[in-house]
């Protein structure tokens, strides 16, 4: 019997293999603004959809990142990839680290874009409750997006992204992933890991800041570096797509 695979979008046919994992409000569609700037001769990109999201919306599961890591490995095995790099946005930062732990010898490099560290967002119960309230409320989702981009962008854009997140994710999956990125802590499992890591943060992101990256990712990964993207908040793939694509490929290309 053929193993079921998660949905994905494949771009390029280059020798350098890269798999990208989106954030809580996102899907594989989040990465499409980068595509015109990507070097599709040098890279092959796969933009992955979690169970319950996007092209995997109808796929049931436990909706954990350990499960997502196994789904990633099944997909890259299907594609014939031996070694590959990872990009993770927001909660995707947690997801790519779970892939790293599941297959440490196969990961060449990692790039975190406004990426949640392995300690999660360390939300207490009150903050968790506030985030649970956005699950069924598009207006509250839009408010979170606006805050995370510095309350400086068009409200219509925040509302559009919120509406798309509701359209492209199942409510049960969306709710289930929350505690796994917001309140879990597996930092002891990644401390000292030698994989090269580059963190990209937006200058207007109020939460995923340089200070947080320094205290978490940079403290735990000895070969980690940090770059701040100008004129961006929490969603640089939408806010500064060409700049982000350029910075990512500068990092991911062979030395």
From TrEMBL:
The keyword Hydrolase applies. GO terms for cellular component: membrane. Keywords: Hydrolase. InterPro entries: AB_hydrolase_1, AB_hydrolase_fold, AB_hydrolase_sf. It comes from the Bacteria. This is Pimeloyl-ACP methyl ester carboxylesterase. Pfam families: Abhydrolase_1. GO terms for molecular function: hydrolase activity. It comes from Paraburkholderia sartisoli. Residues 22-239 form the AB hydrolase-1 domain. PANTHER family: AB HYDROLASE SUPERFAMILY PROTEIN YCLE, MONOACYLGLYCEROL LIPASE.
